[in-house]
């Protein structure tokens, strides 16, 4: 994972990942990526098992804290740099568009004379002038393009060699897990009234399909592809070697020290009313409408039997406010990834107290 040599008009961003954590350097300014304590007014993680509401069946939303509560000094410094770079890119895009339009017009006029039989011979001075203007406009457009391409933030990530093999294993385990036939973001969970609803499901889960992939955030130019967990109701998560990037938008993101991140995978027995994924294990069956003893409620016509599937529930949390929960159809691969993450995280020294 060597430094990037892409030319840029901005201070280079360097991230050093060592066993004692990650540090961020922007130009000559250095920042620690260790997470700060959460604000005093921030509630605990939005756990469906500990949250209390007046109505016990009311849905409990599963999402992370506001990004403003997650951002530390490193995040804010990088955010300011990115905002400056984006404003400059928008200005340069307009300049480049105008230069390209001028180039196309000048070249078109020159080519029309060049293809002619008489004008370029009868009016040689004008023809040469048109040729000169076409060449000059092309040079201006090329220069504008090169300037625009340098208006990017280049991030060079340097990882301690003792960490690289374990991180590579983590990425391999993620690549395998990402092949799960179905991946859902859990948006909210609500307790069901089993008697009134005639169901054996203890919870109703609001979920939405998302994608897991190896990619890189568009915020910074970086050749490193990392585990990317898409989010349906908040920010996407990128698991970089020494930190987690929580990206809501180009203007709202936070960098969380990996030592402050916990990731676990547990069993989720789910009554699947949709088409069952082929890579999920069937652990039982029930009925769409059931009696207290689990037998089918004969009062309902077309009361169909539905499978109970063994899914994985993947949870990502941090003391600074990250709280995301996913459901995956391939339980074994999710367990393998969670194990690889814990093994990699264990290589880092604990965050110093205070």
Could you explain the architecture of this structure?
The protein starts with 12 loop residues before the first strand and ends in a 9-residue tail after the last helix. It is extended and about 100 Å long. It has helices at 67-70, 73-115, 119-122, 124-149, 164-177, 194-197, 331-345, and strands at residues 13-18, 21-26, 29-32, 60-61, 155-159, 183-191, 203-209, 212-215, 226-229, 236-239, 243-247, 253-257, 261-271, 281-287, 305-318, 323-328. The longest helix is centred in the N-terminal third of the chain and has 43 residues, at 73-115. Strands 4, 6, 7, 13, 14, 15 and 16 form a seven-stranded antiparallel sheet that branches. The protein has a five-stranded antiparallel sheet with strand order 8-9-10-11-12, with helices on both faces. The chain is built from seven helices and 16 strands. Residues 1-5, 36-56 and 193-198 have low confidence and may be disordered. 31% of the residues are buried. Strand 1 (13-18) and strand 2 form a beta hairpin. Helix 2 (73-115) packs antiparallel against helix 4 (124-149) and helix 5 (164-177) packs antiparallel against helix 7. By secondary structure, it is an alpha+beta fold.
């Amino acid at each position: 994972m060597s430094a990037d040599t892409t030319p840029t008009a901005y201070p280079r961003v360097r991230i050093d990942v060592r066993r004692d954590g990650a540090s961020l350097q922007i130009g000559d300014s250095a920042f620690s990526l260790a997470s700060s304590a959460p604000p005093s007014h921030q509630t605990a993680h939005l756990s469906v098992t500990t949250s209390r509401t007046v109505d016990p069946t009311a849905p409990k939303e599963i999402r992370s804290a506001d990004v403003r509560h997650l951002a530390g000094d490193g995040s804010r410094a990088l955010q300011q740099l990115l905002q400056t770079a984006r404003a400059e890119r928008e200005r340069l895009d307009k300049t480049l568009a105008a230069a390209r339009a001028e180039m196309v017009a000048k070249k078109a006029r020159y080519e029309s004379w060049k293809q002619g039989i008489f004008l370029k011979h009868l009016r040689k001075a004008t023809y040469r002038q048109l040729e000169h203007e076409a060449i000059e406009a092309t040079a201006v457009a090329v220069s504008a393009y090169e300037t625009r391409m340098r208006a990017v933030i280049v991030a060079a990530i340097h990882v301690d060699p003792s960490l690289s093999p374990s991180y590579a294993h983590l990425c391999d385990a993620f690549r395998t897990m990402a092949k799960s036939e179905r991946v859902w973001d859990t948006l909210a969970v609500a307790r069901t009234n089993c008697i009134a609803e005639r169901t054996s499901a203890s919870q109703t889960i609001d979920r939405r399909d998302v994608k897991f992939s190896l990619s890189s955030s568009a915020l910074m130019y970086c050749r490193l592809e990392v585990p990317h967990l898409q989010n349906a109701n908040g920010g996407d998560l990128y698991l970089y070697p020494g930190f987690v990037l929580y990206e809501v938008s180009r203007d709202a993101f936070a960098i969380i020290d990996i030592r402050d991140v916990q990731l676990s995978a547990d069993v989720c027995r789910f009554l699947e009313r949709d088409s069952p994924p082929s890579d999920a294990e069937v652990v039982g069956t029930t009925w769409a409408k059931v009696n207290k003893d689990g037998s089918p409620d004969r009062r309902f016509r077309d009361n169909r039997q539905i499978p109970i599937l063994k899914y994985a529930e993947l949870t990502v949390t941090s003391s600074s406010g990250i709280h995301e929960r996913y459901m995956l159809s391939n339980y074994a691969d999710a367990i393998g990834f969670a194990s690889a993450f814990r093994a990699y995280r264990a290589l880092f020294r604990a965050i110093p107290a205070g």
